[in-house]
Amino acid sequence: MPSTSPAGTFPAHTPAASQIFTTVLTHGPLTRQEAARRAGLSPAAVTKAVRPLIEAGFLVEDAGAEVRPAVGRPANPVRVDGGRALFAGLKATGDELIGVLTDLCCRIRVARRVPLPGRTPPEVLPVVADLVRELLTEAEGFGVRVLGLGIAVAGDVDRTTGTVRRSPFLDWRDVPLAGLAEEATGLPVTVDNDVRALTVAEQWFGDGVGLADFAVVTVGAGIGCGLVVHGRVVSGAHGVAGEIGHVPVVPDGPPCHCGDRGCLEAVASDAAITARVREVTGVPVADAADALALARQGNAGARAVYARAGEAIGRGIATVANLLGPERVIISGEGLAAYDLFAGQIRDAFTAAAFGSAARCEIRTRPLPFEEWARGAAATAIQSFVGR
Fold first, then answer.
1. Can the peptide bond before residue 29 be classed as cis, meaning omega within 30 degrees of 0?
2. What pLDDT, in 10s, does the model give residues 299-310?
3. Please, what is the end-to-end C-alpha distance for the chain in angstroms?
4. CA contacts within 13 A on the Cβ side of 204
């Protein structure tokens, strides 16, 4: 499918230009002096980096919003023109494709959901192409180009090559998704693990802005963890850093699909909770929503299952805090629908298992719909476009 919005290029691919643009994008509006301080660059380097970005319309100087620095003449702050470009983001689940169109500041302008007829690449790629075509049509109304597409998939994803090595929910192995999607849509494509994509969005546009070290823990169909260490999202040598879903938290606990026992995912994922509620209560709950409803009705057995899940999540978060010492852990995911049932257990188990100063880590919850995961995919496309 030829793109109606041909890909543009970032006007200055020098490290300084990318660094200054990212600094203004995540912290702006900023004066040149403040941008230089935050980026650790000289004023001359900032001036040189800013000029082509303003000329290309990616940065705008707010002449009417003067800020007087401590010394010298008034300085005009610069900010990113969010409407200068658009980006598409897709989140693939086992059953549907969620798509968003965002501006350059990753604000969602359009959101769509479409069911998947099947899970094989030949069944999924036409849906990707159709949904992107719909988003490109919507983009025409904004009068600016779509400059990139991000796709977020659960599982083991090699962002460098755009290959989905393994995705359990789609049952994919070694699928060169970036190349296939580029051919289908005509856009530059970035493919990443869905939790890492969500972490990028939190780092650049959310609760992680300004933090050098933090983590995002997601609970729901699986248990995931995105890590930011010294200001960079960490994937590790083999791309699976942060895989806390398979950290054992319950000795001799229930079997996990990975082959081990007592993994966090085997205790606290939606499927694990649902199965355990059926076992404990004898009530044939069909899914996580039914299990949650039963617990909210006051069923003691169901509530005990959620309490155990909360304890396991708290121990898993403490493991992250003990190993990496993040300033903040952000808990998200569809599993937060049950947060009121296990919030106390998460806090208590974290406090008990966190060692020393690691217990000072702030725990923050951020319930997010799947559209926000698609926004995370768009954030990776913005990141790739800027060259960061």
1. yes
2. 999 999 999 999
3. 28
4. 29
Q: Could you tell me which residues come within 8 angstroms of residue 352 by beta carbon, excluding any fewer than 6 positions away?
A: 314, 318
Pairing label, strands 172-175, 214-219: unpaired
- The pLDDT tens digits for 319-339 are 999 999 999 999 999 899 999
- C-alpha span between 70 and 31 (Å, rounded): 12
Residue 210 has pLDDT above 60, yes or no: yes
How many whole angstroms separate alpha carbon 216 and alpha carbon 214? 7
CA of 239: how far to CAs of 159, 243, 264, 282, in Å?
A: 8, 10, 20, 40
Using the 8-state DSSP alphabet, how is residue 30 labeled?
B
Q: How many CB atoms lie within 10 A of CB 177?
A: 25
pLDDT at 240: 66
As a whole number of angstroms, the distance between CA 378 and CA 27 comes to: 19
H or E segment to which residue 100 belongs:
strand 96-103
Mean pLDDT of the chain: 90
Please tell me the pTM assigned to this model. Answer: 0.90
Q: What are phi and psi of 344, to 5 degrees?
A: -60, -40
The answer to which of 53-67, 83-97, 348-362 has the lowest mean pLDDT is 53-67
Residues paired with residue 328 on neighbouring β-strands, in sequence order: 214, 362
